[in-house]
Specification:
By secondary structure, the chain is mainly alpha-helical. A two-stranded antiparallel sheet has the order 1-4. A hairpin with a 2-residue loop joins strand 2 and strand 3. The longest helix is centred in the first third of the chain and has 37 residues. The chain starts with 13 loop residues before the first helix and ends in a 7-residue tail after the last helix. The relative contact order is 0.23.
């Protein structure tokens, strides 16, 4: 069935916009809680910070780019390494500096323009990056859907994962009116209800949590060791950020090159604020980009609702935060399979729209190596060590694609 597309600047009634914002909130919640737990930060502060960061991003971009900002996975390794010596407060200073690097990159982009982007990253390279973003997350979705502590989950968990997946697909293909615009939320609700019937949900944390509470903010303290180890990763995340913006532009039909600097600036401000609050650094979230692919709802109005929900739940309502935290992994995993797959499909759409000839040896060389390398590294969760750092697969794939495009001759090599 053909779904109505809601454009970036279109507005809806609050009754229609609220559930759309709620499904974006649910889509980002798992990763927004997981990342700070791995880094040693407060999950609730991370959720609240993601809401503040998203609001800042929407303000800086003047509501022209639909995107949600959550904690970045790329910083996990350096932050874990640095936290033993620097502590959470010291890490905060490194995150603030990472935000300042983002801001510096944004000002540089504004100064020298964006014409270089089309020359440096043509559609064939963009498509490769988008494909790595979607397929590189496949292992994450499958692990959440089908594995528990590294082993195949019990049959109730598997059933829940398939029901979650099936509900999203059914609502996307056959849903009418409201259902076709909130397939992710519908999938979460149906699968969560089934999880409760199977006894998979533990409500003890919800019973113990208070209805109202104040956020436990942790202010940063200056630490050179943490700054040197953590903040340069911002340069890698800038590349990831640009890749995500390509995906959004391809979906919405907008060319965001002219305001790319605003997008990077918004990310930088969100990361800087996160450092002052005691939260992980921010980045645009692929999970929420996937939700837009499913729903074809691109209105930035929806992200204001998602940001408000994150701010209130993470900062001031521990009980609701605890309730959302009871959603089992198979529910999120089943949904994520569709979401991440649709991100990857945008790469093929770009190849078709730009009439990329994959019988051309140069195009095949530019795309094949980076795609397999990037997806393989991402799914195996490995990076290229550079001193104390580890460069993730997406960044390596992007750099390799850019390099091949620059050095290979324009004429096809037989």
């Amino acid at each position: 069935m053909s779904h109505e597309t809601i454009g970036v600047e279109e507005r809806m009634s609050p009754l229609k916009a609220f559930p759309l914002g709620l499904q974006h909130f649910l889509s980002m919640f798992g990763a927004t809680v997981l990342v700070p737990m791995l880094m040693g930060f407060s999950p609730s502060i991370s959720v609240m910070s993601s809401g503040i960061g998203t609001a800042l991003y929407l303000l800086v971009t003047k509501g022209k780019i639909p995107s949600y900002l959550g904690p970045s996975f790329s910083f996990i390794g350096p932050i874990v390494m640095a936290s033993a010596a620097a502590g959470a407060a010291g890490i905060g200073s490194a995150i603030v500096c990472a935000g300042l690097i983002f801001i510096a990159c944004a000002l540089l982009i504004r100064r020298i323009g964006t014409a270089w982007i089309d020359r440096l990253i043509p559609p064939i390279v963009m498509a490769s990056i988008i494909l790595v973003i979607g397929c590189g997350l496949s292992a994450t979705a499958v692990k959440e859907a089908f594995l528990t502590d590294g082993a195949v989950s019990s049959w109730p968990a598997l059933v829940v994962a398939f029901v979650s997946l099936g509900t999203v697909i059914a609502c996307t293909c056959f849903g009418k009116k409201v259902l076709c615009t909130i397939p992710v939320l519908a999938g979460a609700v149906v699968a969560y209800a089934l999880s409760c019937c199977f006894g998979m949900v533990d409500f003890s944390a919800v019973e113990q949590a208070a209805w109202l509470g104040l956020p436990d903010i942790s202010l940063p303290s200056f630490n050179w060791q943490a700054i040197v180890l953590v903040s340069p990763i911002a340069l890698v995340v800038v590349i990831e950020h640009i890749g995500h913006l390509f995906v959004i532009g391809e979906m919405t039909g907008h060319n965001y090159n002219s305001i790319l600097w605003r997008s990077v600036l918004g990310d930088g401000l969100a990361t800087t604020v996160a450092g002052f609050l005691g939260a992980p650094p921010a980045t645009t979230f692929a999970e929420n980009i996937g939700v837009m692919s499913v729903t074809r709802v691109y209105s930035t109005q929806v992200f204001w609702y998602a940001a408000a929900a994150a701010f209130l739940v993470g900062g001031f309502c521990p009980k609701i935060g605890a309730l959302v935290g009871t959603i089992p992994d198979p529910v999120i995993g089943g949904i994520s399979i569709v979401i991440f797959g649709l991100i990857a499909c945008n790469a093929f759409k770009m190849l078709v729209d730009h009439q990329i000839d994959l019988t051309n040896g140069r195009n095949v060389a530019i795309m094949s190596g980076p795609v397999i390398l990037g997806i393989g590294m991402a799914t195996m969760n490995v990076g290229i060590p550079v001193g104390d750092y580890s460069i993730p697969g997406l960044a390596i794939a992007a750099l390799l694609g850019i390099a091949l495009n620059a050095i290979l001759p324009r004429d096809e090599i037989e």
